[in-house]
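[Meeting: bench + compute handoff]

Bench side (C.D.) handed over the final construct sequence. Compute side (W.E.) agreed to return the predicted structure before the next meeting so the bench team could plan truncations. Sequence as handed over:
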Amino acid sequence: MPSPALRPLDLREIFDRAFELYRSSIAVLLPVALTIQAAAFVASLALGTGAGAVTFDQIVAEARPERLLELIGLAVGNGAIQIAFSSLSAALLVSGLDQAFWDRPVLLRDGLRCCRERGLPMLATLALLGAIFGLCLFAVPALALWLLAPPWSWLFALAGLVLGGLVALFLGLRFALAPLVVLIERQGASTSLRRGAELLGPLRGDGGLLENAWLRSSVLILGPFLLQLSVAFVAGALSWLFGGRPWEGAGTLAPLVSAVTAALLQPFVWALLLVHYYDRRVRREGLDLEIRARSMLEELAS
């Protein structure tokens, strides 16, 4: 029998179903998410405190455009670390959530097998997306800071950052389902990006505003992200009040709280995307009808 979620769902039902998956699998997936976040946290600290490392505090204190380029270098290095650990996290978490979606036992060994078989395609997909986002966000600011003199360099850098952020947001929504295609349909990076965009559909889709896939993706992705950002901001403010600097080292509250919050939210975010992925397949491909027809043929054959 198909999963009861295999029918068109409204936005509230997607959240409800995702929370059911989160609750049923969190005992297995939360330790996994915490372990990966801890490893990524330590790796980021090593990058920021290694030999010759420049800190954000030093860059702000000097307030020179060329120093901001070093900050971009730090962001790129930290992004590479996050991509590597995110690919591992996605393979483990999505595997467990997919098992829960189909009412199967959530077993860590299934996640490890998925990570071994699909880890490299997942890494390639996230690295490609990361490179695209990095170019959108940093290409124009870097060129402006390199070629122009203040204050024009700062003005063009800020404008490029804002416009690049909007383009990165658009592309992030466009390819949000690509990681699910990598892991569930077992496709490569380029095919998954194209397939994920096809599942999402055109920007102006059929139906009303609440049925628009782009709006749904915006709510499903940006909602948890803004929640995590708010928690990190509050933690940073508290760290500042108690005399720490939110952007420095292991002695501050903000990085630790941010890592723990990410570990708690990541399984839920992937659960949202997983339910959204199957909902798009139901709406665009009739996956529910296909599975029911297959089930009826199996019953007739037996």
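W.E. noted at the follow-up: Residues 108-147 form the longest helix (40 residues). C.D. will use this when planning the next construct.
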